[in-house]
Design brief:
single chain, mainly beta, Pectate Lyase C-like, 3 domains, 14-stranded parallel sheet, 4 helices, about 35% strand, flat
């Protein structure tokens, strides 16, 4: 055969093969596009828009149920407006696959409005309204609302607290002695007088059950906790008529089932008194045994929470308190671009058997307890009850702990493989993020959790003690805390620590975090085992930078490639005599004159103990000390000698610390 013809034949054959493959690819693409268009068309056909005025018998629950009975997996769009709940909305297996989507201005409220106000005789400017239905004792109102804002329950003193050197009885009841100058002769057993107190990392609220005017004592029914006693226990009075002295303050009188309040501006007639909203629901929404449910663009507001009628002794992290939005045995559900506010408990609550739940770009604020709780406090032996593989991302959580001061922005209890990322958490009395619920070294199902790229700031307000920006507890193999920005934490007596590995913390990696201006220390370990703290930047944190409380017979932690900067010249505090801790390749710098100190040792003596053999004393050349997250100047010894930036083709260290995108307020608000 002619060589030219042979080459031409082969060339044609190759091109024909390629064209055939290309044809098949195009055909496949067109088929997929047609299938996707069909799916979109089906979704559009199943999308239904409803309004508050078109609800079946005025019920959002009945309307949703009727729609999904006819069209399983439907998308339901709520038009702008208020959707009032008189019962908790419940989504179950029959709602699998559905989407409930709000519009800008869609508000789901769990409250009733009080409008029938009558003046209180002898108390000018104070008005009273009776609730329209009996209130169960465990649902006595703890938060009330006006015009979308929390109203403060009346208290004395108006701010701060009173102090007593009395040790509060740990076997109860408590006989609280009141100084003469604070005794109120108008108190009586029917007044609903409440004592609030704070002790270390929590507090209590107790309804007074007895008043002894001769001894000037108040009887509180519950015992105090002995290990939370302070040198001077702090307390104040709430919920009596005599406490109302400022506009917007209120009280609840159980005997009369009535709210009394002083309106925000003086009025002459009851018709001019603005409404007050009160919630008697324990939850706004429960997703129970459901899968693939999407909640989007919704504004949830105003929910109560169960409280004991006689009061409660708070537990750490307000662990007893449940959430306004609850997921139980739920799988692969999503709550996004939504808000939760004005609730008495936690905002969102992932309970037993819930897995692969996504909470994304949500705003949670004005909360009685905390933001989001994940898992249960009790270890369930059955694998199917475990809570795991959940994501909380891109949320803003603020102004929490209004009732339970010790509540947390996001807390992971006995739960594994969750990711808490890119959130902004601020303005609360206690910790930002907490992971773990085991004290000591007993094995737990809390492991492989990721806490990263969060911005945690302005917590503590000097009310409580023993708190952390990120608080960790118990053995947690595989848990990582990285690239978080933590700053401006304050405590009452002790414990405003940026990174805090508490009792039994084990196997945790804390790396590339920036911690600044924490009142006591940037990093503190109470006791734990084999934690790794590396490449963190700790700047201007109270006592100096790093604290170790308990010495044990194993390696407490490894502290390496960290940068510690302060004004005190004292870098390490508490107990360092035991050699079971590793420190090396760190950089220390202070504005204070030398000699600087590491525990009780000066630099040469410290190194002779075997610590920090390859560490540096040098100015790290921060770009901006007031904003240390901006990192270091290009010629910093942190890069040159500490090895933070070995590959200059990669992004600068700390360039992506904190959230990776700017929070956008959900359109629902």
């Amino acid at each position: 055969m002619n060589p030219s013809l042979s080459i031409l034949k082969r060339t044609f054959s190759n091109w024909a093969g390629r064209l055939h493959v290309l044809f098949l690819l195009v055909l496949s693409l067109l088929t997929n596009l047609q299938a996707e268009e069909a799916k979109q068309g089906e979704r559009l056909r199943q999308s239904l828009r409803i309004s508050a005025e078109s609800l079946v018998e005025g019920s959002l629950q009945k309307t949703i149920d009727r729609i999904v009975a006819k069209q399983p997996g439907a998308t339901i769009i709520l038009s702008p407006g208020e959707y009032r709940l008189d019962k908790t909305l419940k989504l179950t297996a029959k709602h699998n696959g559905m989407t409930l989507r709000g519009s800008p201005g869609t508000v789901i409220r769990g409250s009733i409005s009080l409008n029938d106000w009558k003046p209180v005789a002898g108390h000018d400017g104070i008005w009273q309204a009776t609730l329209p239905m009996p209130v169960p004792a465990h649902l006595n109102p703890r938060l009330i609302f006006h015009d979308g804002k929390l109203l403060a329950r009346a208290r004395t003193p108006d701010a701060g607290w009173l102090e007593t050197e009395q040790t509060l009885q740990a076997n109860g009841p408590i006989q609280l002695e009141i100084p003469q100058e604070h005794w109120n002769s108008a108190w009586d057993n029917q007044s609903g007088l409440v004592i609030r107190a704070v002790q270390k990392w929590a507090g209590f609220e107790q309804v007074v059950t007895g008043i002894d005017t001769k001894q000037r004592t108040l009887t509180l029914p519950l015992a105090a906790i002995s290990h939370r006693q302070e040198k001077k226990n702090r307390f104040w009075f709430e919920n009596t008529l005599g406490d109302i002295n400022r506009e917007g303050e209120w009280i609840y009188r159980p005997a009369e089932n009535a709210i009394l309040w002083k309106p925000l501006s003086q009025r002459d007639t009851s018709s001019a008194i603005p409404p007050v909203d009160v919630s008697l629901l324990e939850a706004l929404l429960i997703v129970d045994h459901a899968e693939n449910v999407t909640l989007e663009g919704l504004d949830f507001r105003e929910c109560g929470s169960a409280f004991s009628a006689q009061g409660e002794i708070d537990v750490q992290a307000a662990a007893k308190r449940r959430g306004a939005i609850q997921f139980r045995w739920a799988r692969q559900c999503t709550l996004k671009n939504s808000s939760v506010s004005l609730v008495a408990g936690y905002g969102i609550d992932l309970q037993t058997g819930s897995n692969s739940i996504r909470i994304e770009n949500c705003r949670l604020h004005d909360l009685g307890a905390g933001g989001i709780r994940i898992g249960e406090t009790v270890i369930a032996p059955e694998p199917e009850k475990q809570v795991s593989h959940n994501i909380v991302s891109g949320c803003q959580i603020s102004h929490y702990g209004n009732i339970d001061f010790g509540a947390v922005g996001v807390i992971v209890f006995q739960s594994s493989e969750n990711r808490i990322s890119d959130n902004t958490i601020f303005d609360a009395p206690y910790s930002g993020i907490s992971v773990g619920w085991t004290w000591g070294y007993k094995e737990s199902p809390c492991h492989h959790n990721i806490v990263e790229h969060n911005h945690i700031h302005d917590l503590g307000s000097e009310l409580l003690s023993d708190m952390g920006g990120v608080y960790l507890l118990g053995p947690q193999p595989g848990t990582i805390v990285r690239k978080n920005l933590i700053h401006d934490l304050k405590c009452h007596e002790y414990g405003a620590w940026g990174l805090y590995t508490d009792e039994g913390s084990t196997g945790i990696l804390l790396e590339e975090n920036v911690v600044a201006r924490c009142m006591k220390a940037g990093f503190h370990q109470h006791y734990g085992k084999d934690n790794i703290i590396r490449r963190n930047l700790i700047v201007d944190c109270g006592e100096g930078g790093v604290r170790r409380t308990k010495e044990e017979e194993h390696n407490s932690f490894t502290f390496e490639q960290n940068v510690v900067v302060n004004t005190t010249g004292h870098f390490l505090h508490s107990h360092w005599k035991n050699r079971n801790v590793k420190l090396n390749r760190n950089l220390y710098f202070s504005n204070a004159p030398q000699p600087w100190r590491w525990g009780m040792w000066k630099w040469a003596a410290w190194q002779e103990l075997g610590y920090d053999k390859d560490s540096l004393l040098a100015d790290p050349l921060l770009v901006d000390r007031s904003q240390p997250e901006k990192g270091f100047q290009i010629n910093s010894p942190v890069y040159q000698e500490l090895g933070w930036w070995p590959d200059r083709s990669q992004p600068r260290p700390l360039a992506d610390v904190g959230p990776r995108h700017v929070f956008v307020v959900p359109a629902s608000e």
